[in-house]
């Protein structure tokens, strides 16, 4: 029994370089391809694990356009999960969460699900979808494990969860060592924006189409194919889109870095230079002039050679204190603040005294 696992489409997001419309077109195009592949391979289930829409303030026309695309594939069951419920204070559920003003509660959207027998929305009030004939059951979890009992008479149990899961309690992640995880044959996760295997039966599919800058080589777009019939653990394979845009944080601190930048696939890559040694200023300007719609350079990106050790030490601090997906943004803010600060010497003295920089 196979299923496709997608998440974090973020329809309506303002994507760098591409804008809202460009990102939306790319999502819809690749979604059509995935649905077509599912039908060709007789895959009966496509799971969308939260943050399908970037905001509950989006127009109903966009929501209905998306649902209409799904409704065309009547031989595929689509399991949708909002990007959060409203039961937990710790939820970071500001996108398409199932709150009082959720777009999923709108009459025209709700009635759409009522009319289509192959579209299923998991909510805190109705968190389970059972398919007796196929022997499958899906359970919704909102920043936590599903709270319902397992259905009887089915072979495969799949938890569809949106939120922070893993083994980093400092980031309020729910542990996969929790005995509740043992009950499921697969855990389809959404929230983090890059593909990540957490165990032999749990994975984040990552953003379907990337829309934010990520460190070099981590900005892939795609989805997960899962074969539950493989024993003793499901077969999990990530399918990356080679023609999807890649938004890359990049630093040029050596000749090797510069050569790597020059060999990027600029047909599909968009680059944000977050740091470069002053020695490479002219080289970067030349590359930027060659690809003006592909490269941005942060205002505080230039690093004096004597300040390089400071920047490297700052990165080590951030590595310990800040989640990976936020590090570059935090560093950008800190370096820019240091650049414009009227108390720059005080800040540098603090870092030296506190961390030995």
Automatic annotation (TrEMBL):
Coiled coil segments of this chain? none
Q: What is this protein called?
A: DNA double-strand break repair protein Mre11
Determine the domain of life of the protein's source: Bacteria
Q: Mind telling me which SUPFAM superfamilies this protein's record contains?
A: Metallo-dependent phosphatases
Source species of the chain:
Thermosulfurimonas dismutans
Show where the Calcineurin-like phosphoesterase domain sits: 1-88
Q: Which Gene Ontology molecular function entries are recorded, alphabetically?
A: hydrolase activity
